[in-house]
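for the writeup, i need someone to sanity check this before i put it in the appendix. the sequnce is what the collaborator sent (i think, or maybe the updated version? ugh). structure was predicted straight from it, no edits. if anything looks off just tell me and ill rerun, i have time this weekend
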Amino acid sequence: VRVNAMLLVGELRSKDGRPLPAALPTLATTAGDVRVPLEVRVAAAAGMARHAEAVRAADQLAEVAKAVAPAIGPMLSGPPSVAGDWLAGRALAIVQGLGPAAATKESLAAAARILGDGTRGVDLRIRAAAALGAAAAADSGVDVGRAVDSIRGVALAGLEEDAAAAENRRADRSLGSAAAPGGIQPPGGETEPSIPQLVCRRNAWRLWTCAEAIASEDGSTGLGPLLGGDAAAAAAKVAATLRQAAMSLDTH
């Protein structure tokens, strides 16, 4: 009942069709309250994200960001779990969308911890990279050089993880063929690729997101420009390499 009630609060709309502004404080307070059961917080976060996605003007952004910013840190700081990671991922997406106005030093520090934690899921870490790239500033207290290294590391980790899974699938198929009578291969050989197309597209998204988090194509946004000098130039080269790899994967 509590979950459904919170979902309803998130779905309330004003006469102009936008999410009802008066509902946002309740959603943000609930999503950021660690005493509330996770399933209720998840329901609140879904509504909170709807408000963030509906922002269309600067005054709306400031209003929504002010309401959600206090909730972001607690949403990112829970222990790993399916629900906790979903909550964290939604918080990171909100920060990425709203930018610095929705970020605090606490939330950016939590995002940096998630990015650098090799035990967390690859996609969650990449969302943390995207949030940092969109919201971190020179005075945010983020170790930018370390974050850029972590982004490069998680981009590689995603590729290695999927390559290992492909090897396992190939090995399973080889064992299955060997176990067949006479070791007979299926007609036409392999009937499906070892790396499915959607996995390739996911990796294209991962690489592109990592590139943008380090430095946009025009160099105006991302973590790399905060480094300055030769370090910024080196980061831009890493971003360009990741971006080209993403485009190649998407094309082929």
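The CA atoms of residues 109 and 142 lie 7 Å apart. The first helix runs from residue 2 to 11.
thx in advance!!
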